[in-house]
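User: Let's play a game. I give you a shape written as tokens, and you guess the letters that built it. Ready? Here's round one.
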């Protein structure tokens, strides 16, 4: 059985849902690395700091504690300085700023230390944009999820509407295009498929089908 599983891909490809389900099926810890960057971004915005102000953001990162926890019903939680902020991580303001904050080397280094320590313990499913290339390049199994741009935008739009955010599909499409550009061109650990990752296109597929495919890869070689 693979002990460290890295699942990467762009926004809207289905990473979070699939990774959570895989972790639950295996009884592994689920680590949402992207949520950790979102928590850092949330704190930056709440402090009224310009996300592009590298010096101030870097200093704030050094003073920040971000941890993962499990809620009363088993749902994953992100705890920022002792407070559960999970419900606020998908707010549009965080969506717009997270790529900028995540591109700051000091922020990445601060969170990378936490993420790598979790990976070293094993029995973990890491989910994000650089887990297979940067966080855990020695992962036992690397998956890169993709989906068509239309499918990704539709999923993200429905997610935001369900959470009560007043957005249009066109706004979501533009936000995803901007996020992709930022993620793929940032100097520090850009979004890219690891050379040894298995690519899975989730367009038009059910979550169950994608999860089962990954579980088959996990069990290969038992």
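Assistant: Ready! My guess for every position:
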């Amino acid at each position: 059985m693979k002990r460290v599983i890295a699942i990467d891909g762009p926004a809207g490809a289905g990473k979070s849902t699939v990774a959570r389900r895989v972790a639950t099926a295996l009884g592994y810890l689920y680590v949402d690395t992207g949520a950790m960057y979102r928590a850092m971004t949330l704190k930056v915005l709440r402090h009224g700091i310009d996300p592009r102000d590298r010096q101030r953001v870097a200093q704030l990162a050094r003073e920040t504690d971000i941890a993962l926890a499990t809620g009363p019903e088993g749902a994953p939680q992100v705890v920022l300085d002792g407070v559960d902020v999970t419900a606020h991580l998908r707010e549009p303001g965080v969506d717009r700023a997270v790529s900028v904050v995540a591109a700051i080397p000091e922020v990445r280094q601060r969170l990378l230390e936490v993420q790598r320590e979790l990976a070293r313990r094993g029995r973990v499913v890491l989910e994000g944009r650089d887990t297979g290339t940067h966080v855990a390049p020695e992962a036992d199994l690397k998956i890169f999820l993709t989906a068509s741009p239309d499918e990704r935008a539709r999923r993200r739009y429905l997610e935001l509407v369900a959470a009560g955010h007043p957005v249009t599909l066109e706004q979501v499409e533009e936000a995803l295009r901007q996020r992709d550009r930022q993620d793929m061109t940032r100097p520090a650990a850009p979004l890219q498929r690891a050379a040894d990752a298995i690519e899975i296109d989730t367009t038009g597929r059910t979550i169950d089908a994608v999860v089962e495919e990954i579980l088959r890869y996990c069990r290969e070689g038992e």
